Amino acid sequence: xxxxxxxxxxxxxxxxxxxxxxxxxxxxxxxxxxxxxxxxxxxxxxxxxxxxxxxxxxxxxxxxxxxxxxxxxxxxxxxxxxxxxxxxxxxxxxxxxxxxxxxxxxxxxxxxxxxxxxxxxxxxxxxxxxxxxxxxxxxxxxxxxxxxxxxxxxxxxxxxxxxxxxxxxxxxxxxxxxxxxxxxxxxxxxxxxxxxxxxxxxxxxxxxxxxxxxxxxxxxxxxxxxxxxxxxxxxxxxxxxxxxxxxxxxxxxxxxxxxxxxxxxxxxxxx
Length: 271
What we know:
With 271 residues, the protein is mostly beta strands. 8% of the residues lie in helices and 46% in strands. It contains 3 helices and 19 strands. Strands 1, 2, 3, 4, 5, 6, 7, 8, 9, 10, 11 and 12 form a 12-stranded mixed beta sheet that branches. It has a 4-stranded antiparallel beta sheet with strand order 16-15-18-19, with no helix packed on it. A 3-stranded antiparallel beta sheet has the order 13-14-17, with no helix packed on it. The protein starts with a helix and ends with a strand.
């Protein structure tokens, strides 16, 4: 039943909205309990449009990291595509905490063909008052509003995972980025390597520093919780290995909860 509830929540998130709309309601008893939604479309040079949804939970039920039942993986493998980025993984739906205009959220572009990329705001839902939505370009250090008009940017082929951000303020100095408290070297040290070893059919987790793992979960691509481990102990090398011998081939998500933070990675089991 719990999995069904989460799945229904994801389906509710995915309900389509035709055209640009804004739902503003001054009735605080209604808006204070609603998930506030920002719907973004990104159209690549080949004409494909990716619909992205950002949901703000007023009770901080979700975080900026991966949250089961609130975030949906991008399971597609298109030549030209875009996603929300949570760590190194791609998502089409991202649930986060309560709205604050200082927060920014990274977008990923994965382009096999050069050409114009169009960013557009499709809808704002359940906000008590109108908000502004911007695209921050970290390469050019520019902020462009997409509240009233779309942004069209010519892009060369390649992957862009730390250039464009959805923002809600035009003041770059006021923007708060995920993991901004960590230096690049510190972030590398605290991020574990999560891999599937085909030869032994094991999940392997290792890090440059000691991990304090509290919980490990394996999810299906639809968000179903398939396996869960707690009180996991490392081997003599300081690595963690868990058997996945009974897991059939397919695409999965591994979520590792540690005292340093929550990390996740998409795994493809081919045999």
